[in-house]
Design brief:
The chain is α/β, with parallel strands linked by helices and 577 residues long. It has 19 helices and 27 strands. Helix 15 packs parallel to helix 16 and helix 16 runs antiparallel to helix 17. The structure holds a DNA duplex (12 and 12 nucleotides).
DNA sequence: CGGACAAGCTGA
DNA sequence: CAGCTTGTCCGG
């Protein structure tokens, strides 16, 4: 048998003989252990009945560990290796394998009766169209019931449903089970999924879940960046399942209130009529701050004051990104400053670094010697105080660490975008400084800003349910504000697409980033061998950008380069550019 | 990946 | 030339 060792540094297969006793129990996809040189390592069986290379004496497989990815997923891993220019398929096969050894599969649930038709008034009428033919983008308002989409897919047979969060996956599993659909939650119920007869629900990694009789694929909130792996290889669950569905010839639906331009490029758009879509976005008030001089009270528009005084439950979002976060000492309360120049210091890694002069020192308070230093959310804390003064009520500052009990104890909340995850219900979400989002130095800034509005919509509800969003901005005519006002994400898509085309950014081209020690040698070899339509730019901050007309050309060119020794960072479709 | 072994540098 | 580091190759 031919096996691939479970070691990222070995991009090579080896042949072994199967011990007599295991014949029939081991095949393509089995997890095994092998003697490789002086040690034993895990491996996947990738081929059977092979002709071993001449002149090598085969050792027997050392151990049979259990079930692993099917032949279909091993093939898909090879494709992903090409698509994200990975050195080996190993990271994908790991994701496709169970967390613990699985040696037997549970009984397959009997399919009782076909699930009833989906009655949801927004989703229902669109499902048949969305689930027919090749990949589709199903643009639904943010308040649409996503469980209805999952249920529609499950009515075709065993579906694979990819969610942006584990929370949503669990919630959906409960909803579908209640509707009589057998469900396996990935990765906990890997064996149940592998046995078949279930709809499989999970997050990004579930793109690699076993679904032997796959009948349909759904990606929920396709625009959400969590669907992409941040570490190299930077694979995207959407692209993996679109390819998986294509190979199986099954329907594939990508839902989103504001689909990415990438998805719209290869998928057919299905959407609700204008009135239905608009009704599913919250009523939006744009507070124009153009006339307001910059300063602390720039964060409180008359519209915000009205809302706070109205008695409504209000969530204020203030993004810290790009702003100097201060460190405070938990021991003595002092602001931690630079020894040399007394400017505030930051802690980007394991040391304190001065923002002004770059001096570094260990993480310790110079006044009292404490090592317990906390980030002070200056902006949020100040707004909390001012809002308490304004309302005469207690205001809760919400961070990722705020305990759930406290989160529900007040009427007014202030926090970074974490509040949008932590507070479940409110009447109004107010973005105190939307311009932080609109003008952030990221090429997806506009999409991400509208993404926050969509997330707020899930908390406050659509305009029919009284949901309200307040956007404080100095750019009231910005397409994100227009899109939110009209409940029409197309406003952002059109402008953004033109901008990307002009700047030569995805999805109009395929992009990769090359860096680290071996980057220069790699790029030199690439320029030598790649066709002329592949352009290399840089280096900027030690990294090169590789642009090609499409992924076929880009990935073929990257795969053709012999990798020089030394550390190499290679990210196809990098998240931050 | 991790061990083996070879080729280069240092010190007496 | 031993003793150590650095690099390249190989495993079935």
């Amino acid at each position: 048998m031919r096996v691939l060792p479970d070691q990222t540094g070995i991009a090579k297969t080896f042949d072994y003989v199967v011990p007599e006793a295991w014949v029939g129990r081991v095949g393509v996809g089995s997890r095994v252990r092998i003697a490789l040189g002086p040690r034993r390592v895990g491996a996947w069986v990738t081929e059977v009945d092979v002709d071993p290379p001449a002149g090598v004496t085969l050792k027997p497989l050392a151990k049979l560990s259990g079930h692993g990815p099917s032949a279909e997923l091993i093939e898909l891993a090879r494709w992903a290796q090409w698509r994200w220019a990975a050195k080996t398929p190993v990271p994908f096969l790991r994701t496709a394998s169970p967390e613990r050894n699985v040696d037997g599969l549970p009984a397959r649930p009997a399919r009782t009766h076909p699930a009833a038709a989906v009655a949801d008034p927004v989703v229902g009428p669109l499902l048949a169209d969305a689930l027919s033919g090749g990949p589709t983008v199903l643009r639904l308002p943010p308040t649409a019931d996503l469980a209805a989409v999952a249920q529609g897919a499950a009515s075709l047979g065993d579906a694979l449903v990819i969610c942006p969060s584990h929370r949503m996956a669990r919630h959906l599993a409960v909803r579908l089970r209640r509707a009589g659909v057998p469900v396996a939650l990935h990765p906990d119920e890997w064996a149940r999924a592998a046995a078949g007869g279930c709809t499989v629900i999970g997050t990004r990694a579930a793109a690699w879940a076993p679904v032997p009789d796959l009948a349909a694929v759904v990606v929920l909130d396709e625009h959400d960046e969590v669907h992409q792996e941040e570490r190299s290889p930077t694979w995207h669950a959407r692209d993996v399942v679109v390819e998986r569905a294509r190979r199986r010839g099954v329907p594939c639906v990508l839902t989103s209130p504001m689909p990415t331009l990438e998805a719209l490029r290869f998928a057919r758009l299905v959407r609700a009529d204008r009135a239905t879509e608009r009704a599913g976005w919250p009523a939006t008030v744009v507070a124009d701050r153009t006339e307001e001089p910059p300063g602390r009270n720039a964060l409180f528009s008359p519209q915000l004051v009205d809302v706070v005084r109205s008695g409504a439950r209000v969530l204020c979002v203030l993004n810290q990104k790009g702003r100097a976060a201060l460190l405070g000492c938990a021991g003595c309360g002092e602001i931690v400053r630079c020894d040399a120049c007394h400017a505030a210091v930051a802690k980007p890694g394991d040391e304190l670094v001065c923002r002004r002069c770059g001096t570094t020192r260990p993480v310790i308070c110079a006044t009292c010697g404490s090592i317990d230093l906390k980030v002070i959310r200056m902006g949020v804390n100040r707004v909390v105080e001012d809002l308490e003064a304004l309302s005469g009520e207690r205001v809760v500052a919400v961070t990722a660490e705020t305990p759930a009990a406290e989160v529900d104890s007040a009427r007014l909340y202030v926090g970074t975008e974490a509040v949008l995850h932590q507070v479940g219900r409110a009447d109004v979400v107010a973005f105190l400084d939307l311009d932080q989002e609109l003008f952030a130095p990221r090429y997806r800034a506009a999409e991400q800003a509208l993404g926050l509005v969509a997330r707020a919509a899930r908390i406050v509800g659509g305009r029919g349910e009284g949901g309200r969003v307040l956007l404080q901005t100095r750019a009231p005519e910005h397409e994100v504000c227009r899109a939110a006002l009209l409940g029409d994400p197309e406003r952002v898509a059109v402008v953004e697409d033109e901008r990307r085309e002009m700047l030569g950014f995805p999805p109009h081209i395929a992009l990769a980033e090359v860096g680290d020690q071996a980057g220069e040698a790699f790029v030199a070899a690439l320029v030598e061998s790649a066709p002329p339509e592949v352009q290399v730019q840089g280096p900027v901050d030690g990294a090169w950008r590789v642009k090609a007309p499409d992924h076929q050309v880009l990935c073929d060119s990257l795969a053709a380069v012999h990798r020089p020794s030394g550390r190499l960072r290679l990210s196809v479709d990098p998240l931050r550019v």
